[in-house]
Amino acid sequence: MKNLFKYKNLMGKKIKNICCIGAGYVGGPTMAVIAYKCPHLNVNVIDISEERIKSWNNKNADEIPIYEPGLSELIKKCRGKNLFFSNDIKKHIAEADMIFISVNTPTKTKGIGAGKASDLKWVESSARQIAMHANGFTIVVEKSTLPVKTAEVIKSILDAAQENYQNKSNSGKFSVLSNPEFLSEGTAINDLINPDRVLIGGEDEDSIEALSQIYNNWVPKEKILKTNIWSSELAKLTSNAFLAQRISSINSISALCEATGADIREVSRAIGSDSRIGSKFLESGPGFGGSCFKKDILNLVYLSEYFGLPEVASFWNEVVKINTWHQHRIAELITKKLFGTLSAKKIAILGFSFKSNTNDTRESAAIQICKDLMDEGAFLCIHDPKVSKGQIAKDLNCEPKNNNLESITIQEKAYSGVWQSAIDIKTALKNADAAVILTEWEEYSQINWYQLANTMRSPAWVFDSRSIINRKNVVDAGLNFWRVGDGVT
Ligand code: UDX
Ligand code: ADP
Asked: Of residues 19, 20, 292, 381, which has the active-site annotation?
């Protein structure tokens, strides 16, 4: 009966106005691609943060808040035509036929499920905003990475609102869909334009069809998978858990390679050639980061515990534990190689984002590794081509030393928590006892070690956690070299 009612509401109605709540790493690129591929649609991206919206509307499209290759070109093409960024939440929700929820869902820090469950307060407030301002039949699409059963939360808020406003002729009537995002930062535009699959979960076939038609403007029909809402939500969490599990597996084997004399790159190539395993996502690094992997696995752990499946919970929890262990392992081995003490030593950190081609630092391995090194008394000089000094300070929870490197006394250097940001690689390496590569930025693979080795303090080390440096170049320049999973010395 309810479905028939919804069907009646959608019949004949063409989707024209789309609104996305949340102008972040998911909402911004996703809406830019929809606007680009669907010039017949009006796309409004709204956010509570005035600063964010101001930044998206920056005249210089290269200064938008998110660094993502190809994104600023799309913004130049579509912004002001059929793509708009605004703080006018009420207006754009009221006008929308379809609303995407793309807000942040960090792990809860307190209360029930703290440390595991996602904090849904922003999702809840988005649902309330929709309930309050929506006009007529509206399709609500959950886009952010969300724990299983979130659609139910959104639905109950919307249904309650529908009952409250049932006498108002313009009150909202809703259908909730799950359409999880599989974009990977750094390659988001390509991932959105050429997705492996698009997943749409829901109950109301008309709404599923309406969303499917939008994607069908550029995605072939066979790549659009339609499921029930719970399968869609769980598939998203599980995809990320499987990917993260591959990285924890290969990182655990990297330690074994170092101990036995094997080389992780060779091992990885050999196992990746098995077509049942596949070659992607097998690169050992400093540990996975990003806004999704840890959060999604912890959601899976929480869900399994909640449904009385402790063995399943502990199986997945181990993937996160190995990741944290691996980060501590790298910091520890750096300390050991530098004669067991980092006190008053300068370490150049090359790369702070969680991977290259993004300015996102959420859960970046660099955060834990830098904190560990500072706890050992190291003085860090941090370089990243896209991450701001302010962001690093926030992540390390401590302000940089602004004075001249040379003017910092030995005593100060020996204090834990001393770091400075470097304007370029050369400055970072000057007088450093070690360089630690934590992000695979292209420019780090091209460093001329012959030229810079002399500016470091001997005996200096290069630690390559991303396998992007040519060993011979470093060793020939007279530097000591370590790279992840390399037991062949
Ligand atoms: C991930 C998923 O890939 C994407 O589908 C999902 O929807 C969002 O989460 P993202 O977090 O942007 O995307 O980055 P991803 O490319 O998956 O990398 C995650 C982490 O794994 C990074 O820290 C990366 O450096 C690391 N990684 C990746 C490795 O250490 N080795 C690899 O082989 C691949
Ligand atoms: P993601 O990686 O999931 O896109 P981000 O943190 O980059 O996460 O972006 C989420 C955005 O959602 C932020 O810009 C935040 O200000 C915005 N946001 C959160 N809650 C609301 C809300 N209730 N209404 C509008 N915008 C919101």
From this structure: 292
